[in-house]
Amino acid sequence: xxxxxxxxxxxxxxxxxxxxxxxxxxxxxxxxxxxxxxxxxxxxxxxxxxxxxxxxxxxxxxxxxxxxxxxxxxxxxxxxxxxxxxxxxxxxxxxxxxxxxxxxxxxxxxxxxxxxxxxxxxxxxxxxxxxxxxxxxxxxxxxxxxxxxxxx
Length: 152
Description:
Elements: E1 2-3, E2 13-21, H1 27-40, H2 49-67, E3 75-83, E4 86-92, H3 118-126, E5 129-133, E6 138-144
Parallel strand pairs: 1-5
Antiparallel strand pairs: 2-3, 3-4, 4-6, 5-6
Helix pairs in contact: 1-2, 2-3
């Protein structure tokens, strides 16, 4: 995981662009819609669907609850894109951001049973790239399209 200063420019073609108020009840319907689009476009096979759902759910839920502190007046902005043989999602909140040092290292023995930081660890595990921008207010997650490896 890397935190950079500037906002990312969304490469390629934007497949879907949404913004939702900071309400956790809106996260699952949005995640389902985005993942369904990726499955229909052949970017995510059924056996990876749950991993992708988990990553998108974690990123958007983190933006709602940690980034925007569940403040309904603050929005979460989401852009799903396709860039050649890769797809990605940019999630931006309107909060204060965070620093990497504030996230526990789950590999340390004393942090093994902590709840905080697990979502970020899972995103880093299942996605090819996870990069933070704007002081931690924006995350760009990228994954290679599965269809290219299957001969389609």
